[in-house]
Amino acid sequence: MRVVMFGYQAWGHRTLQALLDSDHEVVLAVTHPKSDHVYEKIWDDSVADLAEKHGIPVLLRNRPDDPELLGKLRELAPDLIVANNWRTVLPPEIFDLPAHGTLNIHDSLLPAYAGFSPLIWALINGEREVGVTAHRMNAELDAGDVLLQRAVPVGARDTVTDLFHRTVDLITPVVHESLGLIASGRAEWIPQDRSRASFFHKRSLEDSRIDWTWPAEDLERLVRAQSDPYPNAFTHHKGQRIRIVEAAVSEGCYGGTPGRIFIREGDGIVVVAGTEARNGRLRGLLVKRVRTEDGSEIAATEYFRTMGGYLTARP
């Protein structure tokens, strides 16, 4: 098949590489210009550089709504468009242009976690598995019929960085199997159960601000969901912002005012978290390592030399 690829960052780069390694012909790559957005500077492998290295024509677009792009697509007459991490809406005159439509690769188990940053949101919400879905694009975001899915489990100590590496490794087999099914006429498209759909927004720095009224279990997942190289979960101590790099749920039960720097436990410092006991017990967040604004990473037991005082959402 003749294939056009739409994509961006590492997800798009891995998808383009999978297409280049397949038996199909890539006739064009469309990608976004480089961005200064904090989340778009992470995993920023260049689709444009990879395409140019292999002699594939490249078009840079923020939005795919100009006559030049549509004219180029009509001229190339692709059999299929494959998209992964394309950040703006594709109009129907594009996604329905090829005979086989547009295959979108999305890093969640649709219909759950449509939209943006699905791995981060899934980890924050305590999901037990994450994965990748190949589906046919339609006019509603991430809502088209599913061709195939692959899942990986979420471990009790997994960070979002761990989940990124596991799911990005699924892209190549998912792309190869999907294109094989489509090219051979064996593709079976399964409508999504829209009653199970959920949609999540783009992440911003504000979403990493710690609210100490959250239960410790939720805050511990937030810390793992904001692991390096993502912007870490942060709080303020004596007016200075500090980032929580590593944390756990305390063994003991500790009550009081959320954010109170309470007691040393093992290799960490317990901070009171939450306002409602679960099963009659209120755990704290055991902070193990912090990072200061100058980039220094310090054991919490070294940073918090005395107990008392509070961690706050704002200075």
TrEMBL record:
Pfam families according to UniProt: Formyl_trans_C, Formyl_trans_N
Domain Formyl transferase N-terminal: 1-169
GO molecular function: methionyl-tRNA formyltransferase activity
Gene Ontology CC, one term: cytosol
SUPFAM superfamilies xref list: FMT C-terminal domain-like, Formyltransferase
Record-annotated Formyl transferase C-terminal domain positions: 206-306
CDD domains, per database record: FMT_core
Cross-referenced PANTHER family: METHIONYL-TRNA FORMYLTRANSFERASE, METHIONYL-TRNA FORMYLTRANSFERASE, MITOCHONDRIAL
Protein name (record): Methionyl-tRNA formyltransferase
Originating species: Streptomyces lacrimifluminis
